[in-house]
Each structure stands twice: as C-alpha cells, then as structure tokens.
C-alpha cells in the first residue's frame, strides 16, 4: 500500500499521540492545523485523509470544511453530536467525500460496545437495572463522555424498559444513570453494572494509555481513505474483524 498522507486537525494530547504512531502505520504527517490557525488550503489538498481531534466548539466547522474540500475526515471529538444529522445533509451535497465518527477508537472498546449490547439484551428479563460509570482525566471537557453515551445508547437499543440516559443521582423511570467522574491521569475507564437485591454483574473496560485510541484512529483513517459516505467505528470494526452482529 502506498504511504498515506495525513493532516492532523487539533494538536493537543491526542494529536501528539497520533503523530507518534503514524510512521509505523505507513502514514506521513504532511500538515497540522492548530487551534485558531488559518488553514492553508493548498496544503490541505495534498492530504489523503484528515484526523480531527479538536474541541467541541470548532469540530463541526472543521469537519464541514474537510468534506467540502473532498478530504475524507475521521473525527473523535465529542460534545458536538447534536449536529451529526447536519453532517449527513452536507455529505449529500458533496457525495465524493467521506466522514467517519468514533466516540472511542480503541478496537478493544469497540468490542466492548458489542459485549455491552449483548449483555443488555440478556439482562432485560432478569430484574437487573443497568448503571454506567465513566472515569476520565480532569482535562476532559465533556461530561458524560461520548463513549459513555454510546454505551447508554446501546443499552437503550436492546431494552424495552430503558428509553433515555441521565446524570441525575436518582434516575427517573425507564432511564439509565451515567455517573461521570474526573480524576488525574485517567485515560478512560467505563463500567456497566447490573445489580439487584440478590447479586451484581459488572463488565469494565480500562484504557491503560492513549496508545489504543491513537492507533485505532490511524487505522480507521487508512480504511476511510478512498471511501465515500458516512461511517462509524462500527463499520470499520465489523469489516476489520468480520463481525456479523
């Protein structure tokens, strides 16, 4: 495979982590867009794919600009997802572009998403109400995490007794509570707990570092280069692991 030319949009912790792994994945960093910087459009046009990890306030505009330029873009920025439907509309206007969103790019976490949905289906008739806990570093801007929301949506999809998620300590009927904690130097921990008066079942994913997120984002970007349309990490994971579920 030819070397993939990559643009990084956002050069914070994740941007730096991604940069460290590009060479081993046969990718070359050719352009970096830092916060509040004017884009060099000619430089952008030399890129095969863009990887966007910025902040919620500018993520949507960054993604739209890439789509309009015809540059496939992978985004892991959370906190702006109420505008995802608009991305579908923009892709209809620019059908030769491609976009992939992931709330979490770790392959292990994406397997955890499948496990979460299967567990939710199994637990529905056992009298086990679901609860979610997520722990992240103190610099994370959004709460709950995009990953926690994805987990909650997976539970809602599989159970008739759950319709929404909440951060409230005393959740309303038919809602799953997400407990969001912020602690120093925690890349990301997510737990799903099913508990009643008799016993407790809990599954947990612990990220040991940002390396899994960085590598997953690069691999997803390589997969997206040359594609057209709207994708999520589920599409990439299903293709990578030949999953049918």
Summary, kept brief:
This protein is an alpha/beta fold and 245 residues long. The protein is built from 8 helices and 11 strands.
On the 0 to 100 scale, the average pLDDT is 92
CATH superfamily label of the largest domain: NAD(P)-binding Rossmann-like Domain
The proportion of residues in beta strands is 25-35%
Which oligomeric form is depicted?
single chain
Q: Roughly what percent helix? A: 25-40%
What Rg is obtained from the alpha carbons, in whole angstroms? Answer: 19 Å
Question: What key attributes describe this structure?
Answer:
245 residues; alpha/beta; Rossmann fold; Dihydrodipicolinate Reductase, domain 2; 2 domains; 6-stranded parallel β-sheet; 5-stranded mixed β-sheet; 8 helices; 11 strands; 37% helix; elongated
Molecular structure report:
With 245 residues, this protein is of the alpha/beta class. The chain has two domains: 133 residues, NAD(P)-binding Rossmann-like Domain (Rossmann fold, 3-Layer(aba) Sandwich), CATH 3.40.50; 101 residues, Dihydrodipicolinate Reductase, domain 2. It contains eight helices and eleven strands. The protein has a six-stranded parallel sheet with strand order 2-1-3-4-5-11, with helices on both faces. A five-stranded mixed sheet has the order 7-8-6-9-10. Helix 4 links the parallel strand 4 and strand 5.
């Amino acid at each position: 495979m030819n070397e993939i030319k990559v643009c990084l949009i956002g050069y914070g912790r994740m941007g730096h982590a991604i940069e460290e792994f590009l060479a081993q994945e046969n990718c070359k960093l050719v352009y970096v867009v830092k916060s509040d910087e004017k884009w060099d459009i000619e430089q952008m046009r030399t890129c095969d794919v863009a990887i966007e990890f910025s902040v919620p306030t500018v993520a949507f505009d960054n993604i739209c600009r890439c789509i309009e330029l015809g540059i496939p873009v992978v985004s892991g920025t959370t906190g702006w997802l109420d505008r995802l439907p608009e991305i579908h509309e923009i892709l209809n206007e620019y059908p030769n572009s491609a976009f992939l969103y992931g709330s979490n790019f770790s392959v292990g976490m994406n397997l955890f998403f499948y496990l979460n949905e299967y567990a939710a289906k199994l637990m529905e008739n056992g009298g086990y109400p679901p609860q979610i806990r997520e722990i992240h570093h103190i610099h994370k801007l959004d709460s709950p995490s995009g990953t926690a929301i994805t987990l909650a949506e997976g539970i809602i999809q599989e159970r008739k007794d759950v319709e929404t998620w909440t951060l409230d300590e005393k959740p309303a009927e038919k809602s799953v509570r997400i407990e969001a904690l912020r602690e120093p130097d925690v890349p990301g921990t997510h737990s799903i707990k099913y508990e009643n008066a008799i016993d407790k079942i809990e599954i947990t994913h612990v990220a040991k570092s940002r390396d899994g997120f960085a590598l997953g984002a690069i691999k997803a970007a390589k997969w997206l280069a040359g594609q057209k349309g709207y994708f999520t990490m589920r599409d990439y994971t299903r293709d990578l692991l030949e999953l049918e579920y």
